[in-house]
Specification:
single chain, mainly alpha, 43% helix, 4 helices
Length: 102
Amino acid sequence: MFAEGSDAEGNLLQSYHPITIEYKEMVGQPTDRTTLRDTESFHNSFFLDASKFPLRISATDSKQGELMDKYGEDIFGLDDESQAEFNEYILDDIQETLKKAL
């Protein structure tokens, strides 16, 4: 989302309002894409709910509902490339956990 300004399905997020663009230019943040990252509180509140399948990414930030209403649920998902990186990252941990359980 931050790097490309798109959701998990690859859809570009709608552009920022001109006032937001002006603010982001003042503080040196990207304006060529929607990052949903002003203070980083939203991004920092992301967590992975692994209590059931499919795994779900969510957030605890107070803006979560408002942002989901505006941009859709796919702001919490992973695009194909990120999903592949995530799968590779956790594969060893999953295999190790399964070996211990068996």
